[in-house]
Amino acid sequence: MSNQKETTKVPPVSKSQSPGHEWLYNKPALKTRTQPRFDPALIVRMGLEVLMSRQYPHLILAGLVRIGLIIYGVYHDKHNAVPYTDVDYHVVTDAARYISEGKSPFARHTYRYTPFLAYLLLPNINCHPACGKVLFCILDLVAGYLINCIIRLKQPVHVAVRHSLLWLYNPLLIAISTRGSAESVMACLVLLIIYSHLQGRVVLTGFALGTAVHFKLYPIIYSLPLYLSLEQQSVHSWEWFRPTRKRLHLVMSSGISFILLTYAAYFLY
């Protein structure tokens, strides 16, 4: 016998002979991640979508545009023969000066507005002549916000924002408010009437309607449509104007606000 130990060679294990170790031979191939491509157009489009779905950045930007034009108006009036500021703005400012002196605002020739408008422009006398323009521009922005709120009652947010931008960036409206026209006051009151009516706030609608009619007469044309829309129309025409609780609240609230403001203006002057 030989002292040398016989070494047995172990045959290599094949895949078929090792059924429990297939994972050693069937390793899945590693997936290589591809770097995302930088797409500037996609980023710009996403940014615009976010910007168009939010109104507050537009309110700030529209306000800055109006402030810039107010500053330009001050410079323009000092260095040009044709003024940038509206003539009626000087009329209302003079009426506010009469009020600050204890006189009637109607002592100013061609002043034909409610005396409370002259009260709104008292900061022109006490602070700076452009304070009234700033107030009208703020009300102009409030009108754009009310448009957004009204449309959001029936449409998605992005639709409401896009429609309100037509007001905020309208060059005609920007020029009107920055030149010192008080039309933004009426715009806010009329939009407040519509918004409160759509929300079912009858008393607030009436107070806004009475205040708007006191400032200018033309919003009185909204009285009949508001009155009729508070109730469902009957087939019989004689029941269209039938007074109900909501209709009485509208009539009383609008009448009270109009009478109180008018009587206060008459009592003061």
TrEMBL record:
It comes from Hyalella azteca. This is GPI alpha-1,4-mannosyltransferase I, catalytic subunit. Its EC number is 2.4.1.-. It is a multi-pass membrane protein. Its main location: endoplasmic reticulum. GO terms for molecular function: alpha-1,4-mannosyltransferase activity; GPI mannosyltransferase activity. InterPro entries: PIG-M. Belongs to the PIGM family. Catalytic subunit of the glycosylphosphatidylinositol-mannosyltransferase I complex which catalyzes the transfer of the first mannose, via an alpha-1,4 bond from a dolichol-phosphate-mannose (Dol-P-Man) to the glucosaminyl acyl phosphatidylinositol (GlcN-(acyl)PI) intermediate to generate alpha-D-Man-(1->4)-alpha-D-GlcN-(1->6)-(1-radyl,2-acyl-sn-glycero-3-phospho)-2-acyl-inositol and participates in the sixth step of the glycosylphosphatidylinositol-anchor biosynthesis.
